[in-house]
Description:
Layout: E1 2-5, E2 8-11, E3 26-27, H1 31-34, E4 40-42, E5 45-48, E6 54-58, H2 93-99, E7 101-105, E8 110-113
Antiparallel strand pairs: 1-2, 3-4, 5-8, 6-7
Amino acid sequence: xxxxxxxxxxxxxxxxxxxPVHRDVCAYLxxxxxxxxxxxxxxxxxxxNIAGRKRWWLFPPEVTPCLRRFPDxxxxxxxxxxxxxDETRIPRLREAWxxxxxxxxxxxxxxxxxxxAV
Length: 118
Protein backbone atom coordinates (compact mmCIF):
# COMPACT_ATOMS: atom_id res chain seq x y z
CA UNK A 1 0.00 0.00 0.00
CA UNK A 2 1.37 3.42 -0.89
CA UNK A 3 0.04 6.83 0.05
CA UNK A 4 2.07 9.59 -1.56
CA UNK A 5 2.17 13.30 -2.26
CA UNK A 6 4.89 15.78 -3.29
CA UNK A 7 7.42 12.99 -3.71
CA UNK A 8 6.75 11.53 -0.28
CA UNK A 9 5.24 8.10 0.30
CA UNK A 10 4.50 5.63 3.05
CA UNK A 11 4.65 1.89 2.43
CA UNK A 12 3.05 -0.76 4.61
CA UNK A 13 2.74 -4.50 4.37
CA UNK A 14 2.53 -7.70 6.37
CA UNK A 15 5.56 -9.88 7.13
CA UNK A 16 7.04 -11.26 3.93
CA UNK A 17 6.01 -8.32 1.74
CA UNK A 18 8.60 -7.50 -0.92
CA UNK A 19 9.21 -5.24 -3.88
CA PRO A 20 10.59 -6.76 -7.10
CA VAL A 21 14.08 -5.77 -8.25
CA HIS A 22 13.89 -2.26 -9.72
CA ARG A 23 15.68 1.03 -10.16
CA ASP A 24 13.84 4.04 -8.86
CA VAL A 25 12.39 6.57 -11.30
CA CYS A 26 14.96 8.47 -13.35
CA ALA A 27 14.77 11.20 -15.96
CA TYR A 28 16.38 10.38 -19.30
CA LEU A 29 17.73 12.58 -22.06
CA UNK A 30 16.48 10.23 -24.79
CA UNK A 31 14.61 6.99 -25.41
CA UNK A 32 17.94 5.30 -26.17
CA UNK A 33 19.27 6.32 -22.78
CA UNK A 34 16.15 4.91 -21.10
CA UNK A 35 17.28 1.43 -22.18
CA UNK A 36 20.88 1.94 -21.12
CA UNK A 37 22.47 1.42 -17.72
CA UNK A 38 23.25 5.13 -17.44
CA UNK A 39 20.78 7.89 -16.74
CA UNK A 40 20.63 11.39 -15.36
CA UNK A 41 18.70 13.05 -12.58
CA UNK A 42 18.00 9.82 -10.72
CA UNK A 43 15.98 9.90 -7.57
CA UNK A 44 17.39 9.65 -4.12
CA UNK A 45 15.39 8.31 -1.24
CA UNK A 46 15.40 8.26 2.50
CA UNK A 47 13.78 5.25 4.13
CA UNK A 48 12.92 5.30 7.82
CA ASN A 49 11.64 2.07 9.26
CA ILE A 50 8.91 2.47 11.88
CA ALA A 51 8.16 -1.15 12.76
CA GLY A 52 9.36 -4.58 11.74
CA ARG A 53 12.47 -5.27 9.70
CA LYS A 54 13.19 -4.44 6.08
CA ARG A 55 15.84 -6.30 4.12
CA TRP A 56 17.48 -4.43 1.24
CA TRP A 57 19.45 -6.07 -1.59
CA LEU A 58 21.47 -3.32 -3.30
CA PHE A 59 23.45 -3.88 -6.49
CA PRO A 60 26.07 -1.54 -7.95
CA PRO A 61 25.37 -0.42 -11.56
CA GLU A 62 28.20 -2.45 -13.03
CA VAL A 63 26.49 -5.75 -12.12
CA THR A 64 23.09 -4.78 -13.57
CA PRO A 65 23.69 -6.83 -16.75
CA CYS A 66 24.32 -9.87 -14.52
CA LEU A 67 20.72 -9.61 -13.31
CA ARG A 68 19.37 -10.12 -16.83
CA ARG A 69 18.55 -13.30 -18.70
CA PHE A 70 20.60 -12.09 -21.68
CA PRO A 71 23.26 -9.83 -20.09
CA ASP A 72 24.21 -8.08 -23.35
CA UNK A 73 20.60 -7.06 -24.12
CA UNK A 74 19.51 -4.09 -22.05
CA UNK A 75 15.83 -4.84 -22.61
CA UNK A 76 16.21 -8.47 -21.51
CA UNK A 77 14.21 -10.04 -18.69
CA UNK A 78 15.39 -8.85 -15.27
CA UNK A 79 15.41 -10.93 -12.10
CA UNK A 80 12.15 -10.28 -10.25
CA UNK A 81 12.91 -11.70 -6.79
CA UNK A 82 16.51 -12.25 -5.65
CA UNK A 83 15.26 -14.68 -3.02
CA UNK A 84 14.09 -17.21 -5.61
CA UNK A 85 15.94 -17.28 -8.94
CA ASP A 86 16.27 -20.02 -11.52
CA GLU A 87 20.02 -19.75 -12.14
CA THR A 88 19.67 -21.56 -15.47
CA ARG A 89 17.66 -18.56 -16.75
CA ILE A 90 20.06 -15.91 -15.38
CA PRO A 91 23.53 -17.20 -16.35
CA ARG A 92 25.62 -14.49 -14.64
CA LEU A 93 23.60 -14.28 -11.42
CA ARG A 94 26.50 -15.33 -9.18
CA GLU A 95 28.50 -12.32 -10.43
CA ALA A 96 25.67 -10.03 -9.34
CA TRP A 97 25.53 -11.68 -5.92
CA UNK A 98 29.27 -11.03 -5.45
CA UNK A 99 28.64 -7.28 -5.82
CA UNK A 100 25.43 -7.25 -3.78
CA UNK A 101 25.12 -5.41 -0.47
CA UNK A 102 22.50 -6.75 1.96
CA UNK A 103 21.19 -4.43 4.66
CA UNK A 104 18.72 -5.33 7.41
CA UNK A 105 16.97 -2.14 8.44
CA UNK A 106 15.61 -2.23 11.99
CA UNK A 107 12.87 -0.07 13.55
CA UNK A 108 14.03 3.52 14.04
CA UNK A 109 16.82 3.25 11.47
CA UNK A 110 17.03 5.51 8.42
CA UNK A 111 18.70 4.51 5.16
CA UNK A 112 19.71 6.88 2.38
CA UNK A 113 19.57 5.19 -1.04
CA UNK A 114 21.47 7.08 -3.71
CA UNK A 115 21.12 6.88 -7.48
CA UNK A 116 23.88 4.30 -8.04
CA ALA A 117 21.83 1.54 -6.40
CA VAL A 118 19.63 -0.70 -8.51
